[in-house]
Amino acid sequence: IPEPPRQVTAVVRAEGIHLVWRAPDRNVDETPLLDLAGFKIQRAEMPLDKACRTCPREFREIFDYPYTGQRGQVPEKRLFYYQDTALSFKHLYTYTVRCYNDREHLGMPTKPLEVVWDVPPAPPRALRFERSNRLVRLFWTGSTTLTDGTPCPALEGYTVYRTMTRGVYSEPPINQELVTDTSFEDVPEKLNTTYFYTVRAVRRVEQTLIESLPSSEIEVAYLDLQPPIVTEGLTAVTTPQGILLKWIPKLEKDVAGINIYRSTQHGG
Description:
Elements: E1 6-13, E2 16-22, E3 36-47, E4 60-66, E5 79-84, E6 91-101, E7 113-117, E8 125-132, E9 135-141, E10 157-163, E11 183-186, E12 193-205, E13 208-211, E14 218-222, E15 232-239, E16 242-248
Parallel strand pairs: 1-13
Antiparallel strand pairs: 1-2, 2-5, 3-4, 3-6, 6-7, 8-9, 9-11, 10-12, 12-13, 12-14, 15-16
């Protein structure tokens, strides 16, 4: 039978609980896993005010996730995703994920993953930016309520997301730690690229971080605003044909060309 899936985590957002995991590459006898057929996602639930953390869980299968990768090879090294939306506020949910092979033999379950689901905060508002050379400064108005209109308990902070495809935010946030202010500075990798940003507010319920819906999206045309460095070594030599100019070429990748200026007055 297959080993359990690896690196099972949960990202909790206003849209639902997002489970993320990787497939194993071996069976429990250390042979390569060449016949992975899918994953069984199982869940147990109980009201948060009656939650017994040491009691046995009653798991039931909520989704059969087929594996569509190539048979006869170890599974692809990629992430798998499942979004659970059949949720009730103030509940504790516990998840396990199990692999099964072509003969429908179930592998061992992963270690139970506990997640609290409760009312998410309202999203940040008025997201805007300023640009200074390569630095992009984001600003927004913080969240003060939950989505049901009640006052928001103290927020843990904010997460900032960036993408090059409008509306598609499949990557983790670009901040490594929660942003505790209502501003953030970013230096994207590529110039002359259009980036899109959103921000989410984050509250903590017990050990679970719950993200809000995203703020409105902003578009940043990340053009190269830095002029080329000054040309050096300019000399002029009089020849019978005219004046021959010479200079040291620069190797900046984005130099489009050279403009030459002439005047009959110094500094003119």
